[in-house]
Fold:
Amino acid sequence: MKYLYYPGCSSKGTSRAYEESLLNICHKLDIELEEIEDWNCCGTTSVIAVNKVLSLTLGARNLALAEPKGNEMVTPCPSCWLLLAKVNTVFHEGGALADKVKQALAAGGLTYSGTVNVRHLLDFFVNVVGLEKIKKAVTNPLTGYRVAPYYGCQIVRPYAESDDTYNPQNMEKIVEALGAQVAPFEGKTACCSGTMMATKKKVGVEMSGDILKNIKRAMANVVVTPCPLCQLNLELAEFDEKQPWKEAELPVLNLAQLVGLGLGLTPKELGFSRSILPGVEKRIRSARSDKAPLETAQV
Amino acid sequence: MKKRVLLESEQHKDFLEEIAALPEGERVLSCLQCGTCSGTCPVAPLMDYAPRQIFAMIRAGMKKDVLGSLTPWMCSSCYECTVKCPAQIKITEIMYALKRASIKEGLMNPETDVYRFYKLFTEIVSKYGRMHEMLLLMRYMALHHPVTMMSQLPVGMRMMMTGALQVQPHRVKNAESFQKIVEKATALEAQQ
Amino acid sequence: MLPKKRTPRIGVYVCHCGSNIAGKVDVKTVTDTAGKLSDVVVSRDYQFMCSEPGQELIRQDIKDLELDGVVVAACSPLMHEKTFRRACATAGLNHYLMQMANIREQCSWVTEDPAAATEKAKVIISGTVGWVRNLRPLAEREVPVVPAVLVLGGGIAGIQAALQCADAGYKVYLVERKQSVGGHMAMLDKTFPTLDCSACILTPKMVSVGQHPNIELMTYSEVEGVSGYAGNMKIKIRRKATCVDTEKCNGCGICQEKCPAKVPNEFEQGKGERRAIYTLFPQAVPNTPVIDRENCIYFQKAKCRACEKLCKRAAINFEDQDKIVEVDVGAIILATGHSVFDAKEMPQYGYGRYPDVYSSLEFERMVNAGGYTQGHIKTSDGREPETVGIIHCVGSRDQRYMPYCSEVCCMYSLKFAHLIREHTGATVYNFYIDMRCVGKGYEEFYDRLLNENIRFVRGKVASVTGEPANGSERDRLTLQVEDTLAGVVRKIPVDMVILANGLLPQKDAEEVGRLFGVSRNKAGFFVEQHPKLNPFGTSNSCIFIAGTCCDPKDIPYAVSQASAAASGAITLLSQGKVLVEAIGVHANDELCSRCLTCVSICPYKALSYDSELDKTIVDETLCHGCGTCAAGCPAGAIEADNFTDAQILHEIESILLMEKLMKKEEEPRPEVEEDTGAAAGKAVESQAEYHA
Structure:
């Protein structure tokens, strides 16, 4: 299978482990990801706050570059995905805003006609690759792991695509397909604080910290999230500034890392060492033999 | 908000119509002031005015107070409000519009410099085509929040060790064409 | 063949309608111009033609000037056609020879430029004069009316309507889908604002309905077919098999007690159980049980039959079959009631997820002494709640579900608050957006509640979670809401949440509407004939609506509307006859090619092809004169009275002539040109043929 791939800025930076894991998974599953040549930052969140036309144009440039190559594209970051989906909505609705974006693209010699369908990775795994294929490829069933599926906001709001806005289930399906147990917890679509971890650290730590509290209450021993920023924020909330060498108690994995783990990829291939939290590899190894909690997880 | 008796002559009479005329402003006139948005907003307690109150103030024509409030800057665009609003108002998109309008009119609330982060991000992306996280953090933290940056040193060290923070920027190769696109987009935005 | 008509004598009356017309249209010029048209012998203008003096002008002219055609240039016929028709009829002129030229809704109200409006008015009047020139007198037909009424639905509205019609001496067929009458009101505990016990005030009426000599009560029945025409309708009713002989059963209840098959009780909203043989509730009318075949062990597995063995009256009959009954009625009253919003569609409130989030009806049954907790207010684990939160507007006033307000929820939420305080002394929070207490005694009820120390919070609850508000409240629910009046976001722990679910149309409202030919609005409720002046009638003069099937309402309004509907039906029936619209259609045998297009497109099934006679037949009683057949006939063989091709063509010619004249700015004294005269003559002749 061949698929167009839009990495997004974090895949080459703070979330390198996400891309590394994803590429290794694709290698195993015989999927060829074709990276969009000369892609640019999608222009989400921060740019929308400053210049709306620019944000949509930046996103549209990537779609314009992709369109001659094909109509199906996948991106790991839900925020990139949401921006690209918004671009498509603007193009389909037509009107003044779409015209402006088209004009801007034309200034650089590019055109886009709105035909590239973008999926985020969760959608890709469940609806393109398929749970059956993933299940069959599992060589390291994740028995013993109690995985808390944390979705974050942009992947279910305002568009939920193939999942439910209030109670999405796609990640639960993947966790079970990998042989792990789901640890359901309250607030799996709550906001991690987004960029506020950088601009208002205290608030970021509190919001992400609340999510971790709920996850711990559910007695999970691993967290999985499809969003690179959510992964970073949860880790930063767990990170102890006073004891920066302290080993991770609750590892936070991104979606590709969890799937890759089930598919038998090595810690190196999964980039565990790239985590902000020390000792993720060690904890992942030990977590599978954690004693089962006395009560079943409370919701 | 300065405590005062609000005189109609001081208010920006068409502020509500201006917001309603934006593409994001569809249905803003149908706001019931039910408070679901404020109730569900995870950061409402950080705001000087909760989202619902901002809409009440928009109705009252309090343009300066609205654009000068903390509210749009505290919004993390989690879209909870948009999904739960019974009038289906695009609240999050309106918050973005308020951010842009606040910057345009230079009314940003002095208690926060989140706008600086957004502007820096936009500048970097406009120049290189891709985000340069190291550069963003340095220019934002080192210049404006040096004390915080010092306290974040352990995290920063860790991030450098794991390769999360890259020193070299990535750039878009077709720089010329890219620049033209950015310039045109910026010019078109200014046009509205 | 009728003699050729003499030269027409037409009167034109131009109404100022205050400034509605005169403010835009130059009525003097228009009257002048109209007066110069061929065959117009008098042209007047007046301030308000619909007033008594205005009408007198017309009546006097008809007598003095021997008018045989009248054009009233004024508002829309929907407003005053009846008025002017009556005026003409009293003066001795056939009222179908009066037509209105709409120079208000279609002219002065929609044209910006006064000069353009004046021109348009001239043209419209000229056209109408052209039409009136060729009209033939028509008369409504009278058909007898069957002195019986069908009331569909046995809730409070249906019961009220049935009793009123029955007391007036008419036969009533009351058809109710469930096995007992009572509807939603039978589920309620107390009714606001008097806190009357619902069953106490309802059951006497239910008993009356069951015992009234004029009411044939058909419960456990549904209407399957409606045919016929206004005043004479045939209703096909399916009486479902109850498997219990109502003549023999004495309601002793032993079958229900001993039946081994247990089923979730729908009357108790799924909480609590009933048996496979059951009555709906203790005061049911009729009080005989029915066997629910889908859950009966005998019907499913051919075992048991315990009820049959235990019944001392041998009333159980497993061989019972559905019966089809046909009745004739003259009027129909639809009182089919409503359904309730399913709060599972709003997942943020946790309904269906947390056991202590209750819908309004679930709570109503809980607090009712006959309900699944025998009237004790308690949480799912048996404790009395210390704090309760009541959320208003669940589903209502919401673009995603019901944009309208469900009218009764604020009041019943207040009622719940009062009952909870009274029974348990718990702290009660009511979360509302607006407090809607419109009605007699309602605002006073709100004041009473304010004084009972209910915590009113103006704010729509954003979420209900099991997440504790502070670390220690493990098993409680937390409501997060903005207290908009105090200006703070609050997190409130409660033991129990009650939702004020909004009201929706019945799930099969579409089918019922189609069956009876009643239209529905966007929300799915039945549409009334006029929202202000006829909220209980429909576009069909013999079908009336009452109760929550047309929109959410409280009991006094439902009862009033039911009586209004009953009085509408009684008025109709008391005449003994009903007037059928005079405008009908006529088929020209010679032109008809027997393609049967008309038969298939007639919305009222009034046309049929008689193969023996080889003729297309029009059933005059079913025909509404809509003209669809006339438009659809490829041969032009069907024409509608006073809307024949020739008549319409002449109207068009008169319009074009006036426009031509205005362009030429000539003296508007058109001689009837050759072709128009010929067309007029032809129109007259063809009409004459039909009436021969």
Notes: The first helix of chain C runs from residue 27 to 35. Chain C has four domains: 10-140+643-691, 148-337+542-575, 339-504, 585-640.
